[in-house]
Amino acid sequence: PQEAVEATIPIEYSGRWDRLTYSVGGQVGFMNFHESNSPYFPLDPNLQALSNPFSYYPSQTVTTAIYGITAKAEYPIAPLLVLGASFAADNSHNYNEQSLMVYLKKKFDIF
User: How far is it, in rounded angstroms, from Cα 104 to Cα 106?
Assistant: First the structure.
């Protein structure tokens, strides 16, 4: 987009239960963006000419609601070894992203 404005309100809660640490959070808000028209083949003028010199994606201005959620948990399984997992999901207009991770974190006792 040529112009973009986003405003969100984030909320996060974190805590500990015995040796388990966790956090959950989210955000809600809105996004406004403007995209100018653009050719179908911006990097290849020959393909653009073959397709139709007037073939362009139309310009658009969009205002939409957006949200995101997150969660994370970690548990020490040894003095310097932590098992963890995290999840995140984000949404805005026609873009959605989700991630899920499970990890093992090694701490180095150098001091």
Answer: 7
Distance CA 71, CA 78 (A): 23
Question: Which CA distances in Å does 57 have to 25, 39, 54, 84, 88?
Answer: 37, 6, 10, 44, 31
pTM for the structure as a whole: 0.70
Amino acid identity for residue 39 in this structure: P
The alpha carbon dihedral of 99, 26, 5, 58 has a sign of: positive
* 87 — pLDDT class (breaks 50, 70, 90): very high
State how far the Cα of 34 lies from the Cα of 32, in Å rounded to an integer. 7
Structure tokens that stand for 34 in this block: 């403007």
How far apart CA 40 and CA 67 sit, in angstroms, is: 30
In order, the DSSP letters of 82-98 are EEEEEEEEEEETTEEEE
